[in-house]
């Protein structure tokens, strides 16, 4: 198999050389952030660390963490390090857990993003001449546009089809001869089902490889997508706080981890409880420091994703460290059909409805290809009625408000009081029955 | 003239109904009439009992969600067209029946129906004006 690289020299650089680049960039970053962003400076001073204390990569551990709340506290642009007139684009999270988190990019950042995304595409064997079907959502979400510019940078053809309208997507796929598919893995399975319905034979399509991300997926799901869509499925990782898609990418030569583009995004694994850096190879919470971003660099961002770093050189020749498929979260966030859901949001909705008590339980399952969310709510005396209609309307209202707030369709089931399991006085809020 | 009815929220799972009737039996409460309304997910059990306050208390203590509502017990002639004649009165007055169910015992020659209205007081007045007999809680428990 021919190996495609986008920036071969850096992707295959001996680690010692890579580390010296990382250290130089880190020192420069810390100095700049310390000078320009007060919240960062305050936190560093609180910890008693100054830019000149960063003498080796190990000193990274001296720096304070950044968490999602720091982004919210400085909403919208408080953590930007450049004047706003140098920011050419912003993206934002949906803000369903509070204020949205906003990230910004300079022209150079956009170019960097396109480059790392091009690297990711090359990892999947994509090249100029490919017809890339980009079914990630376009908009404030980083998925669509992030991938888009990478394809253009590479010189391949991008079809900015975005999400939805599945049947049209299949027609386009067939008529345009899409060779590379970018989507969430669950949407890929939807596409497969729709093909079946439309009697489109995937083996007659030109699809060669699918780049799937933005939600957790299992090896079983990989096998299913590959079989149903007749393509090779690879995993991509990214998050808007760090960049967007293109932070790490699996290559065609291994299913043991995604190459982290660590000349730009420096990863660490920490113990989520103590915050201590864990030795190489141990499982823990993934933390990222961006080394080169201008508008919105981030220092030691706690992703809450649980993973492991693998330092052996890959068969593909890349020396870049690999991160194992994310196996869980260190918080209670759920990803349902690609949407981030915190149980506290559901609680917030319930508390907003008069008489409803926040005794609830979320049951997540995967039926076919689709995640389903069932919210069980205990019926208190205050909302109970002797009329069916009144209770049914209550259920519908909760469903509508959750949909409104979270952007996820759910089913509400009214249950008797004290039916929701309470262990040691603490209710179990989430039952995730999906096998991921 | 109103009759107090107990309503209990029930999930559709086996054994719940027998638990409720068990609690009532243990507390020496007699069920005079009942109706069960259900959907795919849940049901509502409506009861007319001889000791309303006690029933409400013991069921709440048993962990059930209990509500109390006022309904009307109406004498309906036990013959062809009997119920139709009562409903005609309500229709004329544009009164909407939320639900209704039959009482087990007869009141003399008449059957007894339990009616639930949104506008209970208005319904009582309209029915009485039409010469229809309405029974009190004490009266129906004595049947």
Notes on the protein architecture:
Chain A has helices at 8-11, 15-36, 38-47, 68-73, 107-123, 142-154, 166-176, 185-198, 219-229, 343-351, 388-406, and strands spanning 87-92, 102-106, 131-134, 157-159, 180-183, 209-212, 232-239, 244-249, 258-260, 265-270, 283-290, 301-310, 322-323, 328-329, 334-336, 339-341, 360-367, 370-378, 411-415, 422-423, 426-427, 430-432. By secondary structure, chain A is α/β, with parallel strands linked by helices. Chain A has 2 domains: 8-331, ANL, N-terminal domain (Rossmann fold, 3-Layer(aba) Sandwich); 335-432, ANL, C-terminal domain (GMP Synthetase, Chain A, domain 3), CATH 3.30.300. In chain A, strands 3, 4, 5, 6, 7, 8, 9, 10, 11, 12, 13 and 14 form a 12-stranded mixed sheet that branches. In chain A, helix 8 runs parallel beside helix 9 (219-229). The two termini of chain A are 30 Å apart. Chain B has 143 residues and is α+β, with helices and mostly antiparallel strands. Chain B folds into 2 domains: 2-69, 2-Layer Sandwich (VC0802-like); 70-142, VC0802-like, CATH 3.30.2130. Chain B contains 5 helices and 7 strands. In chain B, strands 1, 2, 3, 4, 5, 6 and 7 form a 7-stranded antiparallel sheet that branches. In chain B, strand 5 (97-102) and strand 6 (110-117) form a beta hairpin. The longest helix of chain B is centred in the N-terminal third of the chain and has 11 residues, at 16-26. Chains A and B meet through helix 11 and strand 19 of A and strand 1, strand 3 and strand 4 of B.
């Amino acid at each position: 198999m021919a190996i495609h690289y986008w920036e071969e020299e850096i992707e295959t650089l001996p680690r010692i050389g890579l580390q010296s680049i990382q250290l130089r960039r880190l020192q420069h970053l810390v100095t700049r952030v310390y000078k320009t962003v007060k919240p960062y400076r305050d936190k560093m001073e609180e910890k008693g660390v100054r830019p000149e204390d960063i003498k080796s990569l190990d000193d990274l551990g001296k720096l304070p963490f950044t968490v999602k709340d720091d982004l919210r506290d400085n909403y919208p642009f408080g953590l930007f390090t450049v004047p706003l007139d140098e920011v050419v684009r912003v993206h934002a999270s949906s803000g369903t857990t509070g204020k949205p988190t906003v990230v910004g990019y300079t022209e150079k950042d956009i170019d960097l993003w396109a480059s790392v995304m091009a690297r990711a595409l090359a990892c999947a064997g994509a090249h100029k001449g490919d017809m890339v079907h980009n079914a990630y959502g376009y908009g404030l979400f980083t998925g669509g546009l992030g991938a888009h510019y990478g394809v253009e940078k590479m010189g391949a053809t991008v079809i900015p089809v975005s999400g939805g309208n599945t049947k049209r997507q299949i027609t386009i796929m067939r008529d345009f001869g899409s060779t590379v598919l970018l989507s969430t893995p669950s949407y890929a399975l939807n596409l497969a089902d729709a093909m079946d319905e439309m009697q489109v034979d995937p083996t007659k399509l030109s699809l060669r490889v699918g780049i799937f991300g933005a939600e957790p997926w299992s090896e079983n799901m990989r096998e299913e997508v590959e079989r149903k869509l007749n393509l090779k499925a690879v995993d991509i990782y990214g998050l808007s706080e760090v960049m967007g898609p293109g932070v790490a990418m699996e290559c065609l030569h291994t299913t043991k981890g995604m190459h982290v583009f660590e000349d730009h995004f420096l990863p660490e694994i920490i113990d989520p409880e103590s915050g201590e850096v864990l030795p190489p190879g141990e499982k823990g919470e993934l933390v990222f420091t961006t080394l080169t971003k201008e508008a919105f660099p981030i220092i030691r961002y706690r992703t809450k994703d649980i993973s492991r770093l693998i330092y052996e050189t890959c068969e593909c020749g890349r020396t870049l460290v690999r991160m194992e498929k994310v196996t869980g979260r260190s918080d209670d966030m759920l990803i349902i059909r690609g949407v981030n859901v915190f149980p506290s949001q559901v609680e917030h909705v319930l508390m907003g409805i008069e008489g409803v008590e926040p005794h609830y339980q979320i049951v997540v399952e995967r039926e076919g290809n689709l995640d389903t969310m069932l919210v069980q709510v205990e019926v208190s005396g205050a909302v109970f009625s002797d009329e069916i209609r009144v209770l049914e309307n209550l259920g519908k209202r909760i469903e509508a408000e959750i949909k409104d707030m979270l952007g996820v369709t759910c089913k509400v089931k009214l249950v008797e009081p004290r039916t929701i399991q309470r262990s040691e006085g603490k209710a179990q809020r989430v039952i995730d029955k999906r096998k991921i | 003239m109103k009759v107090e009815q107990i309503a209990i929220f029930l999930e559709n799972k086996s054994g719940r109904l027998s638990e409720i009737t068990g609690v009532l039996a243990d507390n020496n409460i007699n069920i005079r009439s009942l109706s069960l309304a259900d959907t795919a997910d849940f049901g509502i059990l409506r009861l007319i009992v001889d000791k309303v306050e006690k029933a409400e208390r013991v069921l709440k203590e048993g962990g059930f969600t209990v509500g109390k509502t006022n309904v009307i017990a109406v004498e309906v002639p036990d013959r062809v067209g009997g119920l139709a004649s009562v409903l005609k009165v309500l229709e004329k007055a544009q009164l909407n029946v939320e639900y209704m169910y039959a009482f087990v015992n007869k009141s003399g020659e008449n059957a007894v129906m339990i009616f639930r209205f949104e506008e209970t007081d208005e319904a009582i007045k309209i029915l009485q004006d039409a010469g229809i007999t309405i029974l009190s809680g004490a009266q129906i428990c004595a049947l």
